[in-house]
Amino acid sequence: MSKKSMLRSAKGRNDHPDNGRRAFLKNGLVAGGAAALGAAAAGAAQAAGENVILQKQDWRTYLGDGVDARPYGTPSAHEAHVIRRNVEWLTADPVSSVSFTPLHELDGIITPNGVCFERHHGGIAEIDPTAHRLMIHGLVDTPLVFTLEDLKRFPRENKVYFLECAANSGMEWRGAQLNGVQFTHGMIHNVMYTGIKLRHVLEEAGIKPNGKWLLVEGGDASAMTRSIPIEKALNDCMIAFKMNGEALRPEQGYPMRLVVPGWEGNMWIKWLRRIEVGDQPWHQREETSKYTDLMPDGRARRFSWQMDVKSVITSPSPQAPVTHGKGRTVISGLAWSGAGKISRVDVSVDGGRNWRSARIDGPSLSRSVHRFYLDIDWNGEPLYLQSRAMDEYRNVQPTKDALRAVRGVNSIYHNNGIQTWYVAKDGVTENVEVS
Amino acid sequence: MSKKSMLRSAKGRNDHPDNGRRAFLKNGLVAGGAAALGAAAAGAAQAAGENVILQKQDWRTYLGDGVDARPYGTPSAHEAHVIRRNVEWLTADPVSSVSFTPLHELDGIITPNGVCFERHHGGIAEIDPTAHRLMIHGLVDTPLVFTLEDLKRFPRENKVYFLECAANSGMEWRGAQLNGVQFTHGMIHNVMYTGIKLRHVLEEAGIKPNGKWLLVEGGDASAMTRSIPIEKALNDCMIAFKMNGEALRPEQGYPMRLVVPGWEGNMWIKWLRRIEVGDQPWHQREETSKYTDLMPDGRARRFSWQMDVKSVITSPSPQAPVTHGKGRTVISGLAWSGAGKISRVDVSVDGGRNWRSARIDGPSLSRSVHRFYLDIDWNGEPLYLQSRAMDEYRNVQPTKDALRAVRGVNSIYHNNGIQTWYVAKDGVTENVEVS
């Protein structure tokens, strides 16, 4: 198999005069090498005045900080590279942009709150929870206003769900673009939510017979608004106030957000302040000009809410190359489906010619990411790594080319195509496509 | 039911001249009131220069921080009160002490990494992962030394386990002492670990036929050492390098710790640097003068490794009083067992005379905490709240008096007695005992 003949490489696409992106890719590659990582972490830590710590090699001879030093703890200075990253050229301004989850550095299925990807449209609202109110009005028997404390009196539930932006992997529609799983697939996180069923507050207000849709609105400067069909709202939507045990983070909608299991992240309204019940969808900006899928014939597919079955190998990947040479090697990744549980993940090391079933490890929960592993004995020859997920309803993840054949390349949303990483003999890994 | 006749109250015990503890209890109570909480959070936030944020009430008119502002995120300034706390009078020095998980502020089953309780004996070692080594020697065919990267090449697994200090609730042996679930039960946390089976590295070294015990040693200044029977080591112990998806925190043993599912936390050696295989236990300090249970006859019970079935109501509790008056009220708590899964939790509102089954919500995983709820319509009369857990092997949580009848009050370890909170008409809640 010749690399040259079968590849459409992200690396080959770096030669155009897009300096912003080239700089970004270069930084991504530098951050990818294990040796470079150590140096970067040391540099960051030294900049933060941590050089004394890093110079201590044998901690059996030092007394460290006591229990009063860190009332709220943070990661080791040696982990300073495990952060959300944004892409400067992607949007006009950071207040309406996205930062990406460092998937290549994580394991298991829980995304730590500190590195959950962010997407906001008017910056992070920093709301005082005691001043915040949620109003429910429109086609209801009794319009109601709730405080956070009011909501905490309803029966609570705890659910682990993935939240994926509809635009995740969106830049890959036109070919391998970004050299890092953080950037190709990092618009996803997976946390345990604590909250209440949306149904409880809707029933308290009393939905009139012609109430068929909700308009949900956020309390930030963008006043993000989406229409949600009443069936979904009554079925499994939640109003969440905690993530991974503690209060929602400001960038995730503190003090309360909507949870719309399995559906695109844009609908999970943050800083939730208003729910209006109506008899038809509202066709707001974020569900017409945005978050619809432009098809090859120029028409737009709408109401494509559910996230498709999808997977990606998180390590090895361009930011997490193989540094240990041949032999025992762990291939690890994530799989998820907006329909339910993942039933199977296959992994190929030869660009999709042959497949082996990966081992799914850890809790298998509906509409949560699943962690998979394939343990191989690498012979040191180049690998074309791919993963392919199947869910409990036998939905199967397609190739990118199969997707393009149906949907064209106009859209930036709902790309669940199979991802390929090329691992060279020296372990350096890059984003490619096989044809 | 007269409060006076049936109670042995923690409040009543505050009148002795232990100023250190009195100050602590007072602080605990002040932090407990919801109004006070808001004021405390605002105070802390203002001290941190966040007063501008707190003065903004309507975030629809402000652009907030962009996605480049917080590469690693932290909680809202309004959550500044959700922190680990330590008790100054408890130990001679903070480098050999404990900080407690704020259980009263958390929900679900995942403890966020930032507030997982700490217990260390020589301060927090801040080890450089690239310099760290794990040695395996003693009764093995081939002594081995592993780097962190070496360990990451073995097959990985992900498990959610509670880690409870054997001394959790230890101060309650002699009666209701501490006015807050953070302090009575906060030496526990529950995270998802990623790591490898300890068995893999032991098999790689090859255990000789007479190898029956392990000595495991930490790389900190206390060189914490414990003996572990080989059956447990080969059965389900892990070497973990991640918690809740990201690297272990320094205070939890970064870059690697032992995981000993269901057994007392002291055995979960942090900063793991050495494993020696031997033919008998070592009888180190931390398994003779400490972490044995002094019985009424003056003899010490040893090898009491497994944590017993236990539960506690986290809200309402002294630091989380009822502030909304009578009516719809959520009673919430945690239950766990070192033997396996929790099968049932009962809750009493009348000091153990009558019991109702609570609702267990969220994943039910072996040797993980379980979250339970009981939704009541509070009539505004005083409550004597208790919870009683049962595990899948029909172990049942005992009363404190039943425990004392067998074990006396000399020990500070393995107290899994039923906890009682007294909720007054005004919602103020305190630690009491019913007799």
TrEMBL record, chains A, B:
Region (Disordered): 1-21
Top-level division of the source organism's lineage: Bacteria
Necessary cofactors: Mo-molybdopterin
UniProt keyword annotation of Metal-binding present: yes
Compositional bias segments (type: Basic and acidic residues): 12-21
Domain Moybdenum cofactor oxidoreductase dimerisation: 303-419
Keyword Oxidoreductase recorded: yes
Domain Oxidoreductase molybdopterin-binding: 121-282
InterPro entries in alphabetical order: Ig_E-set (IPR014756), MoCF_OxRdtse_dimer (IPR005066), Mopterin_OxRdtase_euk (IPR008335), OxRdtase_Mopterin-bd_dom (IPR000572), OxRdtase_Mopterin-bd_sf (IPR036374), Sulfite_DH_SoxC (IPR030835), TAT_signal (IPR006311)
Entry keywords, A to Z: Metal-binding, Molybdenum, Oxidoreductase
PANTHER family: SULFITE OXIDASE, MITOCHONDRIAL (PTHR19372:SF7), SULFITE REDUCTASE (PTHR19372)
Stated name of the protein: Sulfite dehydrogenase
Organism listed in the record: Maritalea porphyrae
Gene: soxC
